[in-house]
Amino acid sequence: MQVVQDEDLLLALLNSAPIVDGKKVDNLPGSAGRELTQQFGGTGSQTEIAHLQRMRNALHDVIRDQADARAALDSLLRDAFLTPEVGPTGIKWELQTSSDERLAVRAAMAWSEVTERMPGRLRPCANTECNLFLIDHSRPGSAKWCSMSTCGNRMKVRTHAHRRREV
User: Fold this and answer.
1) In this structure, are 147 and 159 located in the same domain?
2) Which domain of life is it from (predicted)?
3) Regarding predicted confidence, which is higher, 111 or 67?
4) Which of 28, 47, 135, 159 pairs with 149 at a CA distance of 20 to 30 A?
């Protein structure tokens, strides 16, 4: 398993449904989705995109701690498993699943790895009008926004304006 690449896959998948002009946009269908899948070794087939959409929605719900989210994620992963391959340097684990489900399962495995290795560091952007996620790699673990230049600045401007109105 390639943790760094799969962490990038996880964020790319989670952030493939941004809010644009106040509406949630699904970037997986069409050329953007094909580019995303090909960047991470997929084919961009319609079936693969459909699996990625379902996995993204399930992971959104799990990360946001929605009711029944874990059951939905479990059902998406039910047929995937790892098999060991013993080599001269140790055991290598090989993911066994259909080629159309591989990227979706890898994203779920990356979510599991990140939440185990860095509890609480994978979270939604603190801007309630944003649908993006971040993995907080900062030392204090205090990152709040998907991007300081967009959501961070917007939220700071709003907070400042709100304080000025109160004075």
Assistant:
1) yes
2) Bacteria
3) 111
4) 28
By the 8 A CB rule, do 32 and 92 touch?
Answer: no
Question: Is 0.70 surpassed by the pTM of this model?
Answer: yes
**Alpha-carbon 81 to chain mean position:** 20
Could you give the C-alpha distances from 89 to 84, 86, 92, 146, in angstroms and in order? 13, 8, 9, 39
- 151 & 113 share domain: no
Q: Is the same domain home to 84 and 111?
A: yes
Helix residue ranges, H only, the chain: 3-14, 31-39, 46-63, 69-77, 102-117, 153-166
- Residue (of 119, 1, 18) closest to 60 by Cα position: 18
Nearest Cα residue to 13 out of 110, 78, 81, 95: 110
Domains: count for the chain: 2
